[in-house]
Structure formats: C-alpha cells, structure tokens
C-alpha cells in the first residue's frame, strides 16, 4: 500500500445485505472497496484480479468457505485478511482455524438488529480494517521459520539485535537444570494479530518455571472460552477462561473473558485471585490490559513481569509503567515480528520497558527475568 493512499479492500460475504452494509461502512471510513464476493471462490479470484491491501472474509460461505479461501489466498497471493465471524461456538472454532491459515485477526459480526448494531461498531470496523491492511502478510512465514531456525542469540546470551536471551534455541533446553524464583507471575497483553502469538509464547513457557499467567487478549465474548481451550491443549499450563473469584497458583493460566475487565483482587502465599467487572471500557476496550496490569502491580508481592505483544492502540502502556514502578520486569514484542506495532510501541515510549524481543524470544525473556542467578 502506497504511503498516504487509501487502503483497497475486497469484501467477501454470502449475504448481499451484509456485503452492502460492510462496503458502505468501509467506503464512508475512507477505505476503497474494489470488489465484493459472495463466496470464497469469488474472493480468491477478486484478490488475484485487484491485488487489494486487505480482505474482509466471512467464515461460512457456499462453494468455498472462509478457511479454504484464506488458505488459497495466503498460498497464491499473500494478502492481509480480517475474518468476520458470527457469535457461535462453531464459528469460533472455524475462526481460529482461519488464523492458523494466515488470517491476521477477526471481527465479530453483529447479531440481532444488524444495521443498527453494525452502525454502532462502524468506527471499530474501519480502524481494524485499516490496521490489518498495513500488515506485511509475509511476516507470518518469517516468524514461523524463526521458531525452528534459532533465537539469534550469541554465546554471551545477547541477541543479535542487542536484546538479552538464553544461550539455547528454546526455553525447554536445559530446563531441568534451571532454577527459578519462587511464585512468579506474568501478565501478557495483546490485540490485533495476537491470538497466534499468545499461543506461541505460552507454548514456549516450561511448566518448570511454575508461573502464574494472566492473559488479556482483545477478543469479544463467545470467543475467549474457545481461545482458552486451544491454549490449554497447546501448552504445558492449565489454561481456562477467567470467572469472577477464580484463584490460580503455579502452573495455571487465566484468559480474560470477553467483555469483562479482569482485576487482580487478592494475592497471598503464591495464590492469586481475580475479579471480573463490566466497568466502562478503558482505552476503548474491555477487557483492558491496563486494568489487569495495574491491579497486579498493586497486589502481587512476589516476582512479577509484564509483556506487551502485537496490537493496535495504546492499551498496556499505563500498565507496563505500573509494573515497572512496582519493581517488576517488562518486555515488549519488537516491530519486525508484530503484525501491528501500536501497543508495543506505546509501551516502549514510556521508557519503562526492560527488554524488546522478537516473538520467538519473548518466552526466553520472561524466563530470564525469573531465573535464579
């Protein structure tokens, strides 16, 4: 996309009404809709013909669904894709599969009185489509290859970009001989492009570190439960969606529930308690990373780390400052591996970030903070 030009979009949806509504919203928001498609096959053809900056992709469509279309597009002409998913368990599962195929993020399609609800969400939709359009669609393959190619850490334990890391190619190497501090807690925040990145980071954390993990991913209700199940299956940690009053100890993780802020309400003897609220959005989002990080900084009395991953906006910057001022360790994902370098950039600009790391080194940076030296 040329600097200063309007993003060019393909809108794919099997509903003529939804294609029209989405196209009108994007056009009014300054995004040029260059083609509309009523199924996945037409979407693949439209991308080949128009070379857009972004595709909004419905999940369920006839002839070819959103997953297969995403797979085809990412294989033949990589293009940033935003999935538009209805609020159902089945669509949640399919949406995460689309993210695995290379889609950048997803946006929940409205239900009920569609035109009224979509109008209310139009600013959010335009913002996320514009952010996704700015993503380099080839980065995902670079990140994936980096996971197996090594961490770029030299013999002195210093990354080639100047960041610190481990001397191994993964946090599990030497885990049996590594000693960690007692009762460590890590709070991880992310947004656009975050689900697959959070999955990688959590899967890279060994159970031997005995972490208490809190994850805040900007994600609507109806999806965070499935997200927690996926993380539980792909990591050594016991992961679940947070419920009001939940308590966790070492080896456990909570995912903030969609549409609820997750506050740390208590901490004693290595046991952490959370509460859920529907207080007004913070930074225009709920759950907000700042809410969890600030309350963790106030109440957690043992070693604490805060991590900001890819995402648009500034959520997490205030929380990172709070954790830093409480004596905790702070990490931000680097620009090269962030789908959207908004949240990490704002965190870094506070001057309170201790380390900046590519996604495949984030887990190692967290572990470095908690190793006994």
From TrEMBL:
CheB-type methylesterase domain residues: 179-373
Compartment(s): Cytoplasm
PROSITE patterns tied to this protein: CHEB (PS50122), RESPONSE_REGULATORY (PS50110)
Any one cellular-component term (Gene Ontology): cytoplasm
InterPro entries xref list: CheB-like, CheB_C, CheY-like_superfamily, Sig_transdc_resp-reg_Me-estase, Sig_transdc_resp-reg_receiver
Record's keyword terms, sorted: Chemotaxis, Cytoplasm, Hydrolase, Methyltransferase, Phosphoprotein, Transferase
Residue positions, PTM 4-aspartylphosphate: 58
Primary location: cytoplasm
Active-site residues, record numbering mapped to chain: 191, 218, 315
Catalysis performed (reactions): L-glutaminyl-[protein] + H2O = L-glutamyl-[protein] + NH4(+); [protein]-L-glutamate 5-O-methyl ester + H2O = L-glutamyl-[protein] + methanol + H(+)
Ranges of biased composition (kind: Low complexity): 148-177
Region of interest: Disordered: 139-177
Keyword Cytoplasm included in the entry's annotation: yes
Domain Response regulatory: 8-124
Gene3D superfamilies: 3.40.50.2300, Methylesterase CheB, C-terminal domain
A GO molecular-function descriptor: methyltransferase activity
GO aspect biological process, one term: methylation
Entry annotated with the keyword Cell membrane: no
E.C. designation(s): 3.1.1.61, 3.5.1.44
Free-text note regarding domains: Contains a C-terminal catalytic domain, and an N-terminal region which modulates catalytic activity.
HAMAP family to which the protein is assigned, alphabetical: CheB_chemtxs (MF_00099)
Known role: Involved in chemotaxis. Part of a chemotaxis signal transduction system that modulates chemotaxis in response to various stimuli. Catalyzes the demethylation of specific methylglutamate residues introduced into the chemoreceptors (methyl-accepting chemotaxis proteins or MCP) by CheR. Also mediates the irreversible deamidation of specific glutamine residues to glutamic acid.
UniProt family annotation: Belongs to the CheB family.
Protein known as: Protein-glutamate methylesterase/protein-glutamine glutaminase
């Amino acid at each position: 996309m040329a600097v200063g030009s309007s993003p060019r979009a393909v809108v794919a949806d099997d509903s003529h009404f939804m294609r029209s509504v989405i196209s009108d919203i994007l056009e009014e928001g300054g995004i040029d809709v260059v083609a509309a498609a009523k199924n996945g096959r037409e979407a693949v053809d439209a991308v080949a013909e128009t070379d857009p900056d972004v595709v909004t992709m419905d999940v369920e469509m006839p002839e070819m669904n959103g997953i297969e279309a995403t797979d085809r597009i990412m294989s033949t002409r990589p293009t940033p894709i935003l999935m538009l998913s209805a609020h159902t368990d089945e669509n949640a599962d399919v949406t995460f599969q689309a993210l695995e195929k290379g889609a950048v993020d997803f946006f929940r399609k409205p239900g009920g009185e569609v035109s009224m609800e979509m109008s209310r969400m139009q600013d959010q939709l335009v913002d996320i489509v514009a952010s996704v359009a700015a993503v380099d669609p080839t980065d995902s393959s670079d990140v994936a290859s980096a996971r197996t190619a090594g961490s770029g850490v030299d013999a002195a334990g210093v990354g080639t970009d100047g960041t610190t890391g481990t001397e191994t190619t993964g946090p599990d190497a030497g885990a049996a001989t590594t000693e960690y501090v007692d009762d460590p807690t890590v709070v991880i925040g992310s947004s656009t492009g975050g689900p697959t990145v959070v999955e990688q980071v959590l899967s890279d954390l060994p159970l031997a570190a005995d972490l208490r993990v809190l994850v805040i991913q900007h994600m609507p209700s109806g999806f965070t439960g499935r997200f927690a199940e996926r993380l539980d299956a792909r990591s050594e940690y016991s992961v679940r969606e947070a419920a009001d009053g939940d308590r966790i100890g070492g080896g456990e993780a909570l995912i903030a529930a969609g549409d609820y802020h997750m506050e740390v309400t208590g901490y004693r003897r290595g046991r952490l308690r959370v509460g859920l609220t529907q207080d007004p959005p913070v930074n225009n989002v709920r759950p907000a990373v700042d809410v969890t990080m600030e309350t963790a900084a106030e109440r957690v009395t043992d070693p604490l780390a805060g991590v900001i991953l890819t995402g648009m906006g500034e959520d997490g910057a205030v929380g990172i400052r709070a954790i830093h001022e409480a004596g905790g360790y702070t990490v931000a994902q680097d620009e090269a591996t962030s789908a959207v370098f908004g949240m990490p950039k704002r965190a870094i600009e506070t001057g309170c970030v201790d380390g900046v790391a590519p996604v495949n080194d984030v887990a190692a940076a967290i572990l470095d903070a908690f190793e006994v030296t």
